[in-house]
Amino acid sequence: MAEKKLVEAITSMDEDFAQWYTDVVKKAELIEYTSVKGCMAIKPYGYAIWELIQKQLDERFKETGVENVYMPMFIPESLLQKEKDHVEGFAPEVAWVTHGGLTELQERLCVRPTSETLFCDFYKNDIHSYRDLPKVYNQWCSVVRWEKETRPFLRSREFLWQEGHTAHATMEEAEERTIQMLNLYADFCEQVLAIPVIKGKKTDKEKFAGAEATYTIEALMHDGKALQSGTSHNFGDGFAKAFGIQFTDKDNKLKYVYQTSWGMTTRLIGAIIMVHGDNSGLVLPPRVAPVQIMIIPIQQKKEGVLEMAYALRDRLGGFRVKVDDTDKSPGWKFSEQEMRGIPIRVEIGPKDIEAGRCVICRRDTHEKIEVRLEDLEEKADEILEQMQSDMLERARAHRDAHTHVATNMAELEDILNNEPGFVKAMWCGDQACEDQIKEKFAATSRCMPFEQEHLSDTCVCCGKPAKKMVYWGRAY
Amino acid sequence: MAEKKLVEAITSMDEDFAQWYTDVVKKAELIEYTSVKGCMAIKPYGYAIWELIQKQLDERFKETGVENVYMPMFIPESLLQKEKDHVEGFAPEVAWVTHGGLTELQERLCVRPTSETLFCDFYKNDIHSYRDLPKVYNQWCSVVRWEKETRPFLRSREFLWQEGHTAHATMEEAEERTIQMLNLYADFCEQVLAIPVIKGKKTDKEKFAGAEATYTIEALMHDGKALQSGTSHNFGDGFAKAFGIQFTDKDNKLKYVYQTSWGMTTRLIGAIIMVHGDNSGLVLPPRVAPVQIMIIPIQQKKEGVLEMAYALRDRLGGFRVKVDDTDKSPGWKFSEQEMRGIPIRVEIGPKDIEAGRCVICRRDTHEKIEVRLEDLEEKADEILEQMQSDMLERARAHRDAHTHVATNMAELEDILNNEPGFVKAMWCGDQACEDQIKEKFAATSRCMPFEQEHLSDTCVCCGKPAKKMVYWGRAY
User: Fold this and answer.
1) Cα separation of A128 and A184, whole Å?
2) Residues A71-108: pLDDT tens digits?
3) What is the pTM of this model?
4) CB within 8 Å: A92 and B73
5) Is the Cβ–Cβ distance between B109 and A86 less than 8 Å?
6) Which of A29, A74, A123, A139 to mutate to test the interface with B (most CBs of B within 10 A)?
7) What is d(CA B234, CA B116) in angstroms, rounded to the nearest whole number?
8) Touching B: A residues 204-263, CB under 8 Å
């Protein structure tokens, strides 16, 4: 009865995907809504996922020479205005501080929506000579964007992220770092989050405010909508000129630096939910699961059962493991473990103990595997590894099955309306066509993928000669 | 010549301690000032110290069952006002957000100066039954207090910290957690930062706005001024009543929860500087040194020298170790290593290699120790351990030598004006005496230490019967 209620509380994903998402976010205890409109509280289980993301991403950053720093959370209005495109892009969506204590400020401060301007202001004083380059800095912090429509993890007024900001002596080096970080992001998504991504370049319409080029990784959610999962920007020397960031090069000439920035956010948790989740709740890839193994004793009041559960936990100490020894029924515990997406559960009862075995149940496939107790560590390790790679392959197969080709507007419309997913189509390079597709179908150009294909000779929209293949889609 | 310049750039600490502090903070490349008044940029070296503090403190938290979460950075004005004492304490020093994008907000939001109100608002909805207790949550974030006078690390408008917020079924359990965290802080300061602290309770005048009791750890800086280094508050059920946080207890009755909060900040970096630093710059305790060992090759252009330096670095892989292979002179490198407080340097040149030895120089004592190359790892480990404990003992001896006793106002005045340090003196418990001492001598009651002594029968100020021994001092 109780178990039924827990499971029934989730809307089916085929019935109402948005409601399913909200249900999972709440029932898996990832977040709670707050009295602060558009801002969420990240609960321990949700935050533990973020900590695992942070730790593994930060390690990868540091291997490439990234150093962490911390800049102020406020940007004086005059500083935000220094780069024209940048301020136009961000000013409409920032929060403004006008008073400090009881006093009105002489100059308004915005709460950082992103920190290019602060890093530029810092680099201007910190960089003098080619010996000071490159600067490869990153910060982990929260940023604020005054969004009207918000959804947990996907779009909120405040969110957590990392933002890397680098300065280089040459354009080539900046471009190299931009692509290096994009590749690092793509690799992280695939290897750690089990989410396959398309790597590509944004069109001018979709690029970051102030960037010369924006690169992106795009993932496909279970409902066929796209999610921009990380971006890496090459600024050329645009910001450097606006802020006056110059250095004396080896040839003794004064030159402007070339800059990049790149970021990933708590959005990734939304991506994990929407790529891997099912009608029983969350499904976490083992590498970001705060608990990888939940041991659930059966008939735990019988002598020796709990003791064995604890003994197995101790033997599995190399994993993130817990015993559910609460006084709930095993069925209820199964439902909770499934809702929270814990990769494997180990069922152990009196009969199992007698037979010297236990049952491992995989969260992604619901497969039950009998395991001899002496093989437990080895089997658990094997199953977690298998699950991690199966999840990636399943997500890749889903994405490939939901990637279509259109060569004209009728096909594009038909696919977008009937077969959710990515649509690959050729484009002339003219923003008018992008605008038209967005207006007609509410779909945007996701990226011009690095792996270009020749699908047809003409633009899907206007019929003029095509220049690029583009991934199109409706997006979060 | 160049070396000389680097060293000369620091003011002597005996000449002008405040200027010495500022010089060290800048020359050791811990921070940079920014265009945002009162806010600093924490540079890679400063941030790396903070990361080491975070990591070790967070591990200790988690061992006691703490779970990390993240609450919004904004507090609606109506929420801040719910607890009377709390709003009175904080409203005069918060930053107010009045506009989101182009729109004026219906209700002002302050940037969190601390998050009691947000946690209360969260707990009100999250706690229903005794089964939901205790809640032992913490968050790592930045907070804002609109200070007029600011100094790097010690007092800035934005600073980084952790804030723990817990909820319990009983007052006893809340008190136990309050003291547990204070002890954890004290132990962390001594074992990791090599800073001895006095543990005690704040007087009512000095306690946190809204707290029933505030406990503190107080450290003594090299100049004899005190620094409050961590606090732990017991709120009783005051906030619970103001916010309506109730739970159904085992006896089926509705009860208010009991709460605590506790925090430590980037101030600790200021404490490290002012407790351990000397006229050559920073001195870092090995456990929070981003680089523990700097290998400095002598005559590095001679064949085999750099190769040996790298080989030693690889052998010292268990430590945080670097080779300074820049083209600066060894003397310059020594100065930089000293300025940055790197605990030990290893000097290795052609003659050393020939003799199968190197020289280890301890940053704290400047002692030079000849070490046979085959003993290097073992010796380095031994010296770092020794240095860590010597630094603590030296700081303790300094504090003890600068702790005095006063039994009347004349003595108190004499000591405060002539012998910087803590003054132990008896107190009647009346706030009027605290006010008078503050007004006359600019000294405050630091705490009523747990280890009470009987120094005299009467209050140092008014001569009435004494109730408590208090540590007094001028403080940062």
Assistant:
1) 29
2) 999 999 999 999 888 899 898 899 999 999 989 999 99
3) 0.97
4) no
5) no
6) A74
7) 12
8) none
Residues A3-31, mean pLDDT to the nearest whole number: 87
Q: Which of A71, A76, A111 sits opposite B97 (nearest CB)?
A: A111
Q: What residues does B233 pair with on adjacent strands? A: B214, B261
Q: Please indicate whether, in this complex, the C-beta atoms of A95 and B92 are within 8 angstroms of each other.
A: no
For residue A55, give both structure tokens: 């730790």
* A182-190 average pLDDT score: 98
The DSSP symbol for B12 reads P
Sheet holding B321-323, edge to edge: B321-323, B293-297, B344-348, B357-362, B368-372
State yes or no: pLDDT of B4 exceeds 80: no
Answer whether A97 touches B (CB < 8 Å). yes
What is the structure's pLDDT at A91? Answer: 87
Residues of B whose CB is below 8 A from A69 = 41-44, 47
Question: B421's torsion region: left (phi>0), alpha (psi -120 to 50) or beta?
Answer: left
Q: Is the pLDDT of residue B317 over 50?
A: yes
Bridge partners of B106?
Answer: none
Tokens of A414: 């038909």
Residue A397 CA to residue A223 CA, distance in Å, equals: 14
pLDDT at A234: 98
pLDDT averaged over every residue in chain B: 96
**pLDDT exceeds 90 at position A382:** yes
| Helix ranges, B192-258 (H) | 238-243
Place of tokens 């419309």: A413
Q: Please report the sign of the dihedral spanned by the C-alpha atoms of residue A400, residue A401, residue A407, residue A409.
A: negative
Q: What pLDDT was estimated at residue B2?
A: 45
Inter-axis angle of helices B171-191 and B44-63, nearest 10: 140
pLDDT tens for B79-103 read 999 988 889 989 889 999 999 998 9
With bands split at pLDDT 50, 70 and 90, how would you rate the model's confidence at A8? Answer: low
Closest-CA distance of chain B to residue A453, Å: 41
Query: Which tokens belong to A394?
Result: 């399943």
Strand blocks (E) in A13-118: 31-33, 40-42, 67-68, 74-76, 95-100, 103-111
Please tell me which of the candidates A42, A97, A121 has its beta carbon nearest to residue B97.
A97
Torsional class of A229: left (φ above 0), alpha (ψ -120 to 50), beta (otherwise):
alpha
User: Is the pLDDT assigned to residue A7 strictly greater than 90?
Assistant: no
Residue A316: which of A390, A386, A375 has the closest Cα?
A: A375
**Whose CA is closest to A295, among A273, A272, A315?**
A315
The burial of B291, by beta-carbon neighbours within 10 Å (0-12 exposed, 13-18 middle, 19 or more buried), is given as: buried
Chain centroid to Cα B316, Å, comes to 29
Establish if A16 touches chain B: CB-CB under 8 angstroms. Answer: no
Pairwise CB contact (< 8 Å): B34 & A141: no
End-to-end CA distance of chain A: 37
Contact A42 B69 (CB under 8 A): yes
pLDDT bucket at B1, cuts 50 / 70 / 90:
very low
- Which of B41, B44, B74 is nearest residue A72 as measured by Cβ atoms? B41
- Distant-in-sequence contacts of B197-201, Cβ < 8 A, 24+ apart: B197/B229, B197/B230, B198/B422, B198/B446, B198/B447, B198/B449, B198/B471, B199/B447, B199/B449, B199/B450, B200/B446, B200/B447, B200/B448, B200/B449, B200/B450, B200/B471, B201/B447, B201/B448, B201/B450
Q: What is the dihedral of CA B240, B245, B249, B255, to 10 degrees?
A: 50
* Nearest chain B alpha carbon to A97: B97
Band the pLDDT of B9: cuts 50, 70, 90: confident
Block residue for tokens 């004083």: A125
Q: What is the distance between the alpha carbons of residues B266 and B156, in angstroms, rounded to a whole number?
A: 10
Share of chain A above pLDDT 70, in %: 98
User: How large is the average pLDDT for residues A275-285?
Assistant: 97
Q: B416: part of which helix (H) or strand (E)? A: helix B409-418
